[in-house]
# Entry
Amino acid sequence: MKKLLIGFVLLAFQLNLMAQKSENFIQYVNPLIGTQKMGHTFPGATVPFGSVQLSPDTDQQPHNISGKYNKDAYKYCAGYNYDDSTIVGFSHTHFSGTGHSDLGDFLIMPTVGELNLEPGTKDDPKSGFRSKFSHSTEIAEPNYYKVLLEDDEILAEMTTTTRVGVHQYTFPESENSHIILDLMHGIYNYDDKNVWTFVRVENDHTIVGYRQTNGWARTRTVYFAMEFSKPFKNYGFKNYEKQDYKGFWRKFDQTKNFPEAAGKQIRAYFDFTTKKDEKIQVKFALSPVSTEGALANLRTETPDWNFEKIKKQGQDEWNRELGKIAVTAENKGDLVNFYTALYHTFLSPTVYMDADGKYKGLDQNVHTAKNFTNYTTFSLWDTYRALHPFFNIVQPKRNREMVNSMLAHYDQSVHKMLPVWSHYANENWCMIGYHSVSVISDAIVKGNIEGVDANKALDAMANTARTKYYDGLEFYMKLGYVPEDKNSSSVSKTLEYAYDDWAIAQAAQKLNRKEIYDEFSKRSENWRNVYDSSVGFMRPKMSDGKFREKFDALQTHDQGFIEGNAWNYSLYVPHNPDAMIEKMGGKVKFEKYMDELFTMNLPDEFFAETEDITREGIIGGYVHGNEPAHHAAYLYNWTNAPHKTQERVRMILKHQYKPTPDGLGGNDDCGQMSAWFLFSTLGFYPVAPGNDQYSLGSPAIKTAILKLENGKTLSIEAQNQSDKNVYVSKVLLNGKAIDRRYITHSEIMNGGKLVFEMRDKPKL
# Structure
């Protein structure tokens, strides 16, 4: 009996260990995925949606040299390039996978020996404070980064809270140990990017200040509070700016042990004596409001110096977020792909307010977020497609708060427009469309509007879409299309405006606002005005009503499109695929069009002018590495060959997503590329956000359990799923066959069991 009892205890213990291991989701995350080539992700430490995204920067490439764009800058959109062998320092703010960039605020670098305030070069790192490093000593995990800085034998570790970056440097024995604070450093930097910086030494371990920049965001100001775990013995500043007027500050020697400095180009240093293997920690808090706010954030979120505790708290938070979806798969590589993608989707948008709720608004005044968390980093041309619809399932509360953040942006906007691409109390106007209306409509239509004034939101959507002076809208509203001779990228704009208008109409219908519904339903048909039936493509039209004569359907440059060509953009009628297919000649002809898209050869010359499209992101003529045709593979569901959706989706998953540093076929674009992967891996995708349908595809996992915020659970099972069994023979929801090619949002949120029966041959 004892042996039997011991056996049960051991079995229970083993099962408990297995359960614990199964909840360690961060073990499958590889933050290095997408750090090379077009991925532009960063591998450093952050918590979910954190304000601080603390990461190594491997080079300082200026955005332009003598007024001319420097193409090498594009390799450093996130500050880190896996191919590099040196690190110039660790900065606190980064974008994840954006094609353009900014940030890289407040770079810190530890050194020993003779003080050198120059960064040096990749070819000669010892000419400055940068250091060689090796990937063999590099460890990247959610909320933890570690690397050996080889030149000075300093072990660098970092972790974060939402608003505080925590550095831990293990020094060798030295009388001349230094920690450098570089306020000149930035991503996409140039001579005039820094408008002003200010540093104030409060005591022998606390420093505060701010940095104001004119970049992608033209009035961005970030405040900081910096605290050392050990008092420094000396400190100083160097101002690299040429100053014609210095005022009466010139009476002071501000270079050494003077307690404040101000200017455009400042680096600071702090000296220490260190014993062998002595650890010095640095806590670095950010605030959008003030140094007082930064200090309060530091005290609130990191009241002590327990690095391991802070690291664990952040990793526990990641495990909770990643644990919202528990999957099983064929192999570990598939799990790494899945959880890294999930990790990427939870990096942004980012929290943008102090711990007390204060933030700087678009009007440059201080506001307080009441009953919601304020967010920034809205890369909406990308993320409306899949990221925000994904949030409506797995992060509904956060998505509502993001909607309220957009409405706050609208209230503070002098244009009375919702965000286009906003970050750090600025609208940078990047890309086209007004896709915040898609995000808001999707939330309204799907009923995720608790705490949101939906009618106010609808009015904001309609007013945004009526702003005549915005990007060709005056012509669009008058002519029914954007004319190419009046506004560039005219076809893309016409198509995307038409979709956005449809999204507004769906929200209006949900809210019984007939006048707005009628207005924008009519506008949503404007896509028809740029389809040229004589060539079978969407095509630029001129203000005289004639199609432009110069036209090449393969070319991405100067053809009326942005980041895509006619082959891809002609598919952009996500809100009405049936009408689009009819316009293009019917189902049979359209199927052939799609087949050719995925199998043609697209020579390099046709995307040579578009730097964020490369061969790695292209399958045939289908450009997965950029977003405009992300819904394309699912369009076979509107033909007589839905099995080709299943086939194409699985092909894209296999070729565009790999568990390697160059494993993404394009920019992750603040999570959009990863959200496409997650939806498609689970077996469905939102072709047209703004309705309640998700088009069915081919799941690439064995099982998945979605733990929903409403307390319900959706279980997904792909029976007989394998690399060969990519075709779906039957779909069952709670035991009943689905005889349609989509699943609804309410069916997902009601929970239950979704079963895909897989096979190796199409069901014809």
